[in-house]
Amino acid sequence: MSVHSQVKRITTHTLREMKERGEKIAMLTSYDYSMAKIVDEAGVDVILVGDSASNVMAGHETTLPITLDQMIYHASSVVRAVKRALVVVDLPFGAYQGNSKEALTSSIRIMKESGAHAVKMEGGSEIRESVERILSAGIPVMAHLGLTPQSIYKFGTYTVRAKQNEEAERLLSDAKVLDEIGCFSLVLEKIPAALTEKVSKAVSMPTIGIGAGGKADGQVLVVHDLLGITNEFHPRFLRRYSDLYSEIKSAVGNYVSDVRKQDFPNESEQY
Questions:
Q1: pLDDT digits 0-9 by tens, 108-122
Q2: I need a surface site. Which of 140, 211, 216, 252 has the fewest CB within 10 A?
């Protein structure tokens, strides 16, 4: 029996069981083979190929510019590395909004061309038709409510969402709709912790928070933020577990200096 066949894959069913047992789900983003391999081997349950690739991989200001083809490229790279985690891919802006047929076509392309396990899309009852259509094709859908970065120009700000009663009620009602139609989990971004707790209790699907407090059924961060590769982003919800920006910069600086003073390569580093 090969080592790989002994690794038990995480499925959407596993996540539901984790919620029922009160076991927290750890989710992180990855966009390339090398990083995904490390993240998977470290025991992360869900890997999100996020449209945040638009920011951290391509340097765009928002998540809007990234295309479906680019998401498929990133997702394929991640899938090739992963042995255990469930791989979820963001449907990028423009690949599903306002057109359920296009939403299904985009999702089928992601599943067929990348080999990923599920798709994620932002929005509530306004995307119900698209979600139902994708689910009817047997493709698992992860939902996303609260701060929805693809709608940044509508909101005009990245501040906390659903602080007012009306928006909180709408979010709760959207969460219930998404749960009823069969989404397998729900990302809650930048909403008050008390609302996260309320939503998590009201739905059977696991909730995954980012800047949404500790009462969600799991947590997600962007891997570049957690590792301190990005150093200009300092939201309250972010805990940096490393300072790779400084470490990598220092390593590269040492290499440059060794090359300049002809210390690299030395006698033992040549043929």
A1: 999 999 999 999 999
A2: 252
